[in-house]
Design goal:
Elements: E1 2-7, H1 10-21, E2 37-40, E3 45-50, H2 55-60, E4 66-70, H3 71-77, E5 82-86, E6 92-99, E7 112-116, H4 119-128, E8 133-137, H5 144-147, E9 153-158, H6 162-166, E10 169-178, E11 180-184, H7 186-191, H8 193-230
Parallel strand pairs: 1-3, 1-4, 7-8, 7-9
Antiparallel strand pairs: 2-3, 4-11, 5-11, 6-9, 6-10
Length: about 230
Amino acid sequence: MLTIALSKGKLIESALDLFRRAGYEITGLSADSRRLIFVSPENDMTFLIVRSSDVPTYVEYGGADAGIVGKDVLMEQESDVYEPLDLGFGECRISVASLRGEGANDRLSSKIRIATKYPRISERYFNKRGISVEIIKLYGSIELAPVVGLADRIVDLVETGGTLKAHDLVEVEVIAQSTARFIVNRASLRLKQEPLMELIRKLRTAVQDQRALSDNRRTSAVGARKKKMVRP
């Protein structure tokens, strides 16, 4: 039996939909469920529902054979796991943001204060640019830090930018793009190679089919707009 760690929150609905499209019907498990462990005997799988930041830990140390988690978490934790699939959903970006009008003030003579849930990503990024920073680790309400003078900038995950705009913040730099990834424990890949490789194959096919469908829809939409524009 394979044990799969899934992230609570935004990714779980898309993750369960992906499994269904790959042919794994998981009856009884939903995004609203409060169960932390769910056995699916028909699929020979057990699902663990954990915090996103814990998924790589469960997988790296063998508590789970595989898992689904955002690339932002993997970049921050630098976990020793195999990452065979970019699943495409949960798309967002890790960005630097500041109060409007203050984005270009790099104070080379003193440290810039950065508030973030991603201290490792932030420090690596600014160190590569030769900018000295002081990292302030926060666990929530990152957008408030520049507003109250706690930090000069923030590094946070941005999806639409609506929360930044509501606090008069603007993106000044994009550090990296993030999507959901399928990760695998390295020992499990050897010991349970056959079922894991079959799962990876089916998930990859489902992802490719979904991308092809999305591409066809975009092409059709563009074609429809062009036809509308050339009408007499």
